[in-house]
Amino acid sequence: MVSATAQSVGSEIRIAAPNSSDSQTNIQTIRDRSDEGNVIGSLTVAHPGTVTAPGLTPVESREVVQKYVAEKLTFWQQSLKLSDWQISWAMAHRSDLKPNTVGQIHWDMPKKSAAILVLDPGDYNMPFNAMLDDMELTIIHELIHLKLTSLPHSEASRGSEEQAVVGISESLFALEHQTK
Description:
Number of helices: 3
Strand content: 15-25%
Strand order of the largest sheet: 1-2-6-7-5
Order of helices and strands: EEEEHEEEHH
Low-confidence stretches: 1-30, 36-49
Radius of gyration: 16 Å
Largest sheet: 5 strands, mixed
Number of strands: 7
Helix content: 25-40%
Number of domains: 1
Structural class: alpha+beta
Distance between the termini: 36 Å
């Protein structure tokens, strides 16, 4: 479903995939969100590879994270007017992502489908609530890339697009969280 072979921040790879409806080739694109050194700090680790919220078991913590990410994906997909897209998500270990990234998106424009990978809680090294915020920011970031799929992309525009996506996603996150 989602390839873990994406390039580093702001990069794009195109993968030719046969289209099930005809013999044409679909272009599928993958974008990543850099961790930019954000995955640091303290963390509650009950078992290796398991992040827990204070007072919750590892299983309960994982359920909280999964529910949180699913709710944030729904909220931001609607807010960004991407409701016509079928978007799935999954957690991925750091080893499944390109170095220095905490998420990526893979989309198929003709099918209007996309899959987002979010760094697995066990690979974070920060407080639980900060981790949830970072996961939400990753969702926003990847959805902004999806929102921009209709724009022309080139090697020359990669860095500029990534800068814009980072700024927009951070601004949206800040606006959403200042009203609470």
